[in-house]
Specification:
The chain has no helices and eleven strands. By secondary structure, it is mostly beta strands. Strands 2, 4, 5, 6, 9, 10 and 11 form a seven-stranded mixed beta sheet that branches. Strands 1-3-8-7 form a four-stranded antiparallel beta sheet, with no helix packed on it. Strand 9 and strand 10 form a beta hairpin.
Amino acid sequence: QVHLVESGGGLVEPGGSLRLSCAASGSFHSINAMNWSRQAPGKQLELVASITSGGNSTYLDSVKGRFTISRDNAKNTVYLQMHSLKLEDTAVYYCNAGVILFGGFRYTGWGQGTQVTVSS
């Protein structure tokens, strides 16, 4: 089993910054891509940022230039640094990861989510 645990959410004013972390633990061979997604009230889940095991990253257009995804492979941890936060960034943020178990079985693990609220 693999567990993903997010942290770092909270309440911030517009223009502020937050840093989310997501650590994977358990017994597994390796992790491929790690991602951050979010779901705002009444809206569908959307992919915010992805990063490969080699460090290549992609972003949702609306967060480009404001959010940075990074990872520490030694710690099996992915981060999302968020700057210039806007009201519309308010959502529950989830991390997920493509996990390869011993024996080659693959699946996507999800964290429990962390609330980010941008409000004045």
